[in-house]
Design brief:
single chain, alpha+beta, Vitelline Membrane Outer Layer Protein I, subunit A, 4 domains, 6 helices, about 30% helix
C-alpha cells in the first residue's frame, strides 16, 4: 500500500496519469457493484447496439449483472496494473538515486612500490592447478583384449548363434504366413464350391405335368414387410410352377435376405427365374421334395426381411393337399417379427416385392394361381427306364445304373438311381455289358 501511495504522489506528468487511472478504477468498480446489486442497466445506446450483435438486450436474463461484471472487470484490471507498477517504482527510484562514484583520481595500484625484506623472493602467483583439476591416480580398468583368440572365438560363436536364431524366427514367420495363406485359400475354395453347388440345379427327382393358366387367373398375395425404393417381379415360364428358390443372404443387420431367385419346374426340368434383389456370395438353395411345389411362405420382418422360410406341399392334379404340407429350413438372421401366407391349396407362379439396393429385401409377396389346367401329361421319368447292373471286365466292380449314351471318346455315360452320372471306358465293362451297350446305339 505504501508503494501505491508513493506512485500516486509522484511529481510530474507520470504521477498525474497514475492518480487519474487509480481513481477511474475505483469509479468502474463502484459503478459495476451498483449495477449488480440494484439491477440497473449502466450502458447507453451505442453499447446496447454492440451487445445486440451477440443476441443480448434488456430482456435477457441477468443482463444488468453482466454489464456490472464487465465494469468491475475493467476496474479490477486497471487496479492490478497500478499495483504492479507501484511495486516496481521503489526499485526504479533507487536506481535513479544511486550516484556514480568517479575513481579516476586514484593512483594505479600496480605502480605502488612494495617494500620486501632483503633476501625475500618476489612472490609469484601459483601456477599449480586447483586440487579438483589434478588427475586421479586411480588405475584404469583393464580393457578387454578383442584380439585374444579365445575372446574372438566366443564373440564369433555368439554372433553366429544370434544370426541362426534370427534366421529360424524368419523361417517360422514365413511358415506361419504360408499356413495362414493356405487356410484362407482353402476356406475360399470351400466357400466357392458351396456357392457353385447352391447355384447349380439338379435334375428333378420326378416330373410334373404341364399347366396353363391365364393372367386373370393370377392373384397377388398380401405383401409382407415394409415398402422399399426398388420393386421387382418374376413369373414362371409357360407350363411351370414354383418349386423352390435360391436365397441370397447378406450382412445387413448381421444377416438378412438380400435377394431371392425363384426356381420353377416345367415338366422334367428345373428352370431359374431372375434374381430379385441383390446377389451375394452366400446363396442357399431350397427345393420341394419329389412331386411337391411351393404353397406359401413365412417371413421374419421389421425394417427389412431378416429371414425367410418356404412352405411346400405335394401337387395332386392342380391342387395341393394342405394336410401333407411341410416347411423348408429358415434362412437368414434371427431378428424381426413373424408373418406368413399360405395359398390354401393353390400353386404359385412367381414372386414380387421391394428391396433396398445393396442392403436387403424390404417386402415379399407371391402370385397365386387361382385356376389352372393340365395341358400335357408328365414326361416319362428318367428313372423309369431300364436299370441294370454294369460290371467291370475283371468282375471286381459293379454299379446299378441305366445306359445314357456311348460317347465319341469310347466312354459310356451311365446314370445311377440317385441321379448322379458316371463315365467308364467301354472296354472296361464285361463282354455282356459291352454287347448291351452296342445294342443300344
Amino acid at each position: 500500500m505504501n508503494n501505491g501511495i508513493l506512485l500516486l504522489a509522484a511529481e510530474g506528468e507520470e504521477g498525474r496519469y497514475a492518480l487519474f487511472a487509480f481513481l477511474m478504477s475505483i469509479v468502474f468498480v463502484g459503478v459495476g457493484l451498483y449495477g449488480i446489486f440494484t439491477g440497473k442497466l449502466m450502458i447507453w445506446g451505442r453499447q446496447r447496439w454492440l451487445f445486440s450483435l451477440v443476441g443480448l438486450d434488456e430482456s435477457s436474463p441477468g443482463f444488468p449483472q453482466l454489464i456490472g461484471g464487465c465494469y468491475c472487470a475493467v476496474g479490477g484490471i486497471v487496479l492490478v496494473a497500478m499495483t504492479v507498477q507501484a511495486m516496481k517504482a521503489p526499485e526504479e527510484q533507487q536506481q535513479v538515486a544511486r550516484p556514480d562514484i568517479d575513481l579516476s583520481h586514484l593512483p594505479d595500484l600496480s605502480k605502488i612500490p612494495v617494500h620486501m625484506p632483503p633476501g625475500t623472493n618476489n612472490p609469484r602467483p601459483s601456477s599449480s592447478p586447483p586440487v579438483s583439476s589434478v588427475p586421479s591416480t586411480e588405475a584404469p580398468k583393464p580393457r578387454e583384449n578383442r584380439f585374444d583368440p579365445e575372446t574372438t572365438e566366443r564373440l564369433r560363436a555368439e554372433r553366429m548363434k544370434a544370426e541362426a536364431e534370427q534366421e529360424a524366427a524368419k523361417r517360422e514367420k514365413e511358415r506361419l504366413a504360408q499356413v495362414a495363406k493356405e487356410a484362407v485359400e482353402q476356406m475360399n475354395r470351400e466357400k466357392e464350391a458351396a456357392r457353385q453347388a447352391a447355384l447349380e440345379l439338379p435334375d428333378p427327382p420326378l416330373p410334373l405335368s404341364y399347366f396353363t393358366y391365364a393372367d386373370v387367373a393370377l392373384q397377388e398375395s398380401p405383401e409382407l414387410g415394409e415398402s422399399g425404393s426398388e420393386r421387382f417381379a418374376d413369373h414362371a415360364p409357360p407350363g411351370g410352377v414354383m418349386v423352390g428358390a435360391i436365397f441370397f443372404v447378406g450382412k445387413n443387420y448381421g444377416a438378412s435376405i438380400a435377394g431371392i431367385q425363384p426356381i420353377y419346374q416345367v415338366g422334367d426340368k428345373y428352370v431359374k427365374g431372375k434374381i430379385c434383389g441383390d446377389e451375394t456370395d452366400q446363396p442357399v438353395q431350397q427345393l420341394a421334395e419329389a412331386g411337391g411345389v411351393v404353397a406359401g411362405f413365412k417371413l421374419m420382418t421389421g425394417r427389412i426381411i431378416d429371414a425367410a422360410q418356404l412352405a411346400y406341399g405335394p401337387l395332386d392334379g392342380t391342387k395341393i393337399d394342405p394336410k401333407q404340407g411341410y416347411f423348408g429350413e429358415q434362412i437368414g438372421g434371427d431378428g424381426g417379427y413373424p408373418g406368413n401366407y399360405y395359398a390354401e391349396g393353390r400353386a404359385i407362379s412367381g414372386v414380387f416385392g421391394t428391396y433396398e439396393k445393396g442392403k436387403s429385401l424390404k417386402s415379399l409377396g407371391m402370385y397365386v394361381i387361382r385356376r389352372m389346367q393340365v395341358t400335357g401329361a408328365a414326361p416319362p421319368s428318367s428313372m423309369s427306364a431300364e436299370l441294370r447292373t454294369f460290371t467291370s471286365s475283371n468282375g471286381k466292380f459293379s454299379v446299378q445304373a441305366k445306359f445314357v449314351a456311348l460317347n465319341d471318346d469310347g466312354t459310356v455315360s451311365l446314370e445311377k438311381e440317385d441321379g448322379s452320372k458316371v463315365k467308364a471306358p467301354l472296354s472296361s465293362l464285361s463282354a455282356e455289358d459291352q454287347a448291351y451297350v452296342n445294342s443300344m446305339r
